[in-house]
Amino acid sequence: MPTTTNPQSVRKVPSYCYNCVAGPDFMNVKVVDGVATEIEPNFAAEDIHPARGRVCVKAYGLVQKTYNPHRVLQPMKRTNPKKGRNEDPGFVPISWDEALDLVSAKLTSVRAKGLVDDSGLPRVAATFGHGGTPGMYMGSLPAFLAAWGPIDYSFGSGQGVKCVHSEHLYGEFWHRGFTVAADTPLARYVISIGSNVEASGGPCAVTRHADARVRGYKRVQVEPHLSVTGACSAEWVPIRPKTDPAFMFALIHVLVCEQGLDKLDVAFLRDRSSSPYLVGPDGLYLRDAASGKPLLWDERSGRAVPFDTEGAVPAVAGRFRVEGAISIDADDARQQFDVAEGVTAYTKLVEHMEKYTPEWAASICDVPAATIRRIAQEYLENASIGETIEIDGQTLPLRPVAVTLGKSVNNGWGAFECCWARTLLATLVGALENPGGTLGTTVRLNRPHDNRLLSVKAGEDGFMAQYFNPTDKEHWVAKPTGRNIHRTLVPIVGNTAWSQALGPTQLAWMFQREVPEDWNMPMPTLPDVWFIYRTNPAISFWDTRTLVEEIAKFPFTVSFAYTLDETNWMADLLLPEATDLESLQMIKVGGTKFVEQFWEHRGVVLRQPAVEPQGDTRDFTWISTQLAKRTGLLEQYNNALNRGAGGGAPLKADGYDYSLDASKEHGVEEIWDAVCRASSASLSEGREVHDLEWFKEHGFYTVPMSKTEWYLSPTLAQQGLRYEMPYQERLLRIGRELGNRLHEHEMHWWDEQLSEYAALPEWHDVPGRWAQQIRNAGGKPEDFPLWLLATKSMQYHTGGNASIALMREVAQNVRGHTGVIMNAKTAKSLGISDGDRIEVRSHIGATYGDAVLAQGVRPDTLVILGQFDHWATPLAKDFGMPSLNTIAPMSMELTDATGSGSDIVRVAVRKVAREETAQ
Ligand SMILES: Nc1nc2c(c(=O)[nH]1)N[C@H]1C(S)=C(S)[C@@H](COP(=O)(O)OP(=O)(O)OC[C@H]3O[C@@H](n4cnc5c(=O)[nH]c(N)nc54)[C@H](O)[C@@H]3O)O[C@H]1N2
Ligand SMILES: Nc1nc2c(c(=O)[nH]1)N[C@H]1C(S)=C(S)[C@@H](COP(=O)(O)OP(=O)(O)OC[C@H]3O[C@@H](n4cnc5c(=O)[nH]c(N)nc54)[C@H](O)[C@@H]3O)O[C@H]1N2
Ligand code: SF4
Ligand SMILES: [Mo]
Questions:
Q1: pLDDT recorded at residue 918
Q2: In testing the pocket of ligand 2, which one of 792, 822, 885, 900 has its CB within 8 Å of the most ligand atoms?
Q3: Could you tell me the pTM of the whole model?
Q4: Are 888 and 777 in contact (CB under 8 A)?
Q5: What is the CATH number of domain 766-917?
Q6: CA of 536 to the centre of ligand 1 (A)
Q7: Can you give the pLDDT at residue 157?
Q8: Could you say which residues of the chain have pLDDT below 50?
Q9: Domain 1-162+472-711: which CATH class?
């Protein structure tokens, strides 16, 4: 990097970092004589940004990211037609003209053949990684994708199914929470179950939790090893892996069976939950025969009435004699009851939870019963039922307790139970979506994305409207429209823009290799063209050694590439875009979004070229415009931009019109100038219009937003709606209906997943599923006595910045980054000392690293940070770091009903000679 002792010009360029889902965060780039030299906080945002204008350590790596000597700096074409880990791709540099010709010729021929192939699957597929963050860097590419038509987003990279997956799906279902957080600024007591927020929550979470600690809140960290979050919590509960549902069921037992209804938030349960709905002898709601509406017991009139009867006073608990009711099962099968006993959903819950005592849970979770009981009591006491708070003139309940779940707790088997239990724990004390309590952050499956309160509409049975994939005979999608089959298999994921990427993406990979015998659907094909950007499934998914062989089969892969990583090693074309500090884009900020981005403002922020692009890398908006032009889609592309596909706001709306002439090609600055004007006009309701030049100087524009928008419950109250808690009558029915459809088509390979659809979840042996998977694969579980888990690294955003030397340097000072964390006593019993080279072996393979001995980890548990074991990514390939992903299977048995799985695997460990591991 050139440096000068007497700089001629020093500039501070405002921008944003959104490299991980905890963003966006604000920063300034210090530019000395045209060279980016430092990342600094942007204190101009001090009063509006929850982290007061600061970024995390990862953003400080962006300078090196820009000047990384290993960057791909001009388009490259593959010359070796053979693809494989041991095949050098033989990339040769080509001009942008040639590269764009190649890709547009391919796309044009695909268009001529038809957008979908004979199996009904899109011929073009695309994979974007890391929780949607690539969208914050891809300029106007979304407008090109919209202009194109059907694209298959089926091939995932671990985001989605290995991410906080069940939370995404059930969270939005129950309370419009794509991710879920505590209302940290008001919280007094947080039970954090495997949520590693001090490492994963970015500066907003870290700032908020630090402030909360100063205020005296208590956080209890429940997790098998002492993460950095555990280390700065008041208490660490080292739970046995994958037993969290049992722990949470026992908490519920203490509340409903030992403490009892009188101690809970009776008004909330009565008015905002389905607790009073009467359940009949067949386990379905008793319904009014005429209207089909669920019945509840009206204490005022002493009879069963439809749930929405004016003036009714519902009984929360009890058993009642009901005459002339009906129930409605799957496929509209109706049953008539002359007389039936109706049991309130709440009473059903109490009876169901009786067996789940802390003593019962203690033996499963390896947590003393007294600890579980105490935590439940502390939770209840801190909920301060009855207390209120005034926020912006509204008096709202104050319930300063929350339960949060990390990604390995809310994906895969057991995650449904955890998400249910978490939401129920909040419901029981009235803390769901009320100040101090458990809050959803944003919505992705529902709309609109930037205000989840507006997504609340009245639906059936007194609940919010939901948009399931149909399971009825007439509308069920028997022929998949995408390779991960989300519409066919997963009703709750719906079918909006984000649904497909949140489908069971591992199935798309697995079914390329082999389909079940009773598959009975068109055979999955490979897409003609696959686009990838900011994703590296060859490292981030499971069973990565095998996965890479599937990646090698794709006939034409176009990678927007930063370096030559393990996935684009198999690409046909590398298109290097100008990255973080070199390109132009505007995104929305503020409101409530992901992790702990709860703001009291909303607005837009600009990312701008602080420095000239390195080499012949190009702005993504320029690349997108060229693709649109060369594929004859310019008009559709411009129209998509005009509709707002590029970011900030539609370019034309009531009161303003900055729309682009759809027939013409527009420059990068011209496009974003229009977005700048439209966004500021829209946010200020026409009072202020700012152009690109203004934004280049000021960086962002925001308007105040009431904090009451953080809380969903007042919106439900206004609309007279209830949360679908505690009894999942609808999920039960949908599961049965899905089973009917699959079985009519003689498909039984999803039967185990169907078992997850339950009205009240039962504990089943969740960890035992991992043992069973080993048996099914022909192994012996006792040969793999330890659990291996993953945990996030503060310094790395998944594998995205693994090639940045500064991150490596910082990370080396943080425990665990040099190898495999293991309990010192376990190590001693195996003859392993700190720093020894060890082999961690599962039934599918081995990974190698140095032992990092610690007391803060269960004796039966090993932990590997992040996702490494790179073999192509420059720099990272020399780390010698192990990876869970190399040895965790991609497996149908370990896939839950939502289609997700966990980053966890049973292993054996032994000391090896260092030479043995050279591979
Ligand atoms: N063992 C383990 N596995 C995991 C996880 C874990 O914690 N442990 N986490 C899981 C989760 S939650 C997720 S969301 C997924 C995420 O996994 P992925 O979706 O695969 O995301 P990344 O690993 O961030 O992808 C990074 C790739 O993007 C490239 N890249 C970085 N910056 C740029 C850029 O500016 N331009 C271009 N063109 N490319 C760039 C990097 O070189 C890298 O190859 O991983 C999952 N896998
Ligand atoms: N610095 C940084 N921040 C990030 C990311 C990143 O890569 N780096 N990625 C972002 C993304 S995509 C996501 S999805 C989020 C994820 O955010 P988190 O869910 O907070 O991430 P993890 O660190 O993977 O947390 C998982 C924790 O669960 C624990 N765990 C594993 N198995 C079990 C179990 O069976 N029971 C219990 N109780 N605990 C268990 C592990 O010990 C681990 O510490 O982070 C986001 N933020
Ligand atoms: S948490 Fe760090 S890496 Fe993630 S967006 Fe914020 S500054 Fe960037
Ligand atoms: Mo994620």
A1: 56
A2: 792
A3: 0.97
A4: no
A5: 2.40.40.20
A6: 6
A7: 85
A8: 1, 919
A9: alpha beta
